[in-house]
Amino acid sequence: MRHFLDTEDFDRSELLGLLTLIGLLKRADKQGALPPLLAGASLGMIFEEPSTRTRVSFEVAMTKLGGHALYLKPGEIHLGQRESIKDTSRVISRMVDAIEARTLRHQTLLELAANATVPVINGLTDYNHPTQVVCDVYTMLEHKLPEKRLEDLRVVFIGDATNVCSSLLMMCTRMGMHFTHVAPARYQAPEAWREIGRRNCLVSGGSLSITDDPLAAVREADFIYTDLWWWVGQEAEIPERRAAFMPRYQVNAALFAAAPPHAKMMHCLPASRGVEATDDVLDHPRSIIYDQSENRLHAEKAILVKFIHPRLRKAPTALRQWHAGEILAFLEDRSSRPAS
Ligand code: CP
Fold first, then answer.
1. Residue 119, preceding peptide bond in cis (omega within 30° of 0)
2. Cα–Cα distances in Å, from 280 out to 76, 209, 253, 271?
3. Would the CB of 168 count as within 6 Å of ligand 1?
4. Looking at the domain covering 132-293, what would its CATH class be?
5. Is the pLDDT at 76 greater than 90, yes or no?
6. Which side of the chain, N or C, has fewer Cβ within a 10 Å radius?
7. Active-site residue identified among 3, 6, 132, 298
8. Within the chain, which residue ranges are assigned CATH 3.40.50.1370?
């Protein structure tokens, strides 16, 4: 069973194929011509944390493709409480065509996937956020200078080594792009991620840099990306984190002005406006944060189609008609055959 847990589970050509599929589905959708590729399919969406973009994009994507999504909000189902993760996974697998899960711990997602009999899609864990970065790289392709190829692009991520930073580092290096993480030493990408990035670069020809110097890093950036400096559960660390990042690592007008005039501003959102980035940069004409958000919808459609469509059973018309006849005959009490 193949799942979508980590971009590292896919080679460059598979990821390129996914990026192409996003474009095809987006174009069809924009023309009101999206085929109902997932008619009759259901997606179970498990959330252990709140979400705006991930929840809305997956649910709308299923509806647009002719399927249905169930929002299983935090605390609404048994998941490791009153029922093992294994049992929950096996039971839900019997009723839906795929599971999307946002779990607090990556290990929970891995356990869900290990026991699922349908594809599991990672909707963010404490380790990574692969659906976000597939969408991000697609958005970069839409906004890059026309003369640049994917493998020419320089992505500079400024801020904490978040789950989005982890996935972006891995996806960019896998695609042959040039990725720089800028943060104070204590908050830089850990060695395990760097090792994966370096291995990716050996195959792809991309590059990975880690630095504590934001001004030098943005000078050749095509895309500047930032994310929250702290998350739910890290409230006690806020004073220490604020002191480490502010003001040097804030993406503000002065830092953005040091980048090339074509550089674009990115943020996965939600943002703490005035903290990791200022309003004037987030709302700048070269900010593409809302294009990123919209592209979550198109990316989810591609991921859902890739994983669900090939598994849907399509009975021949004659067989469907035969079953309909048998059931209707029974309902109209014209059949005396006992149920078997
Ligand atoms: N970027 C992102 O995953 O947003 P949500 O937390 O709103 O889903």
1. no
2. 40, 27, 7, 13
3. no
4. alpha beta
5. no
6. C
7. 132
8. 7-129+296-310, 132-293
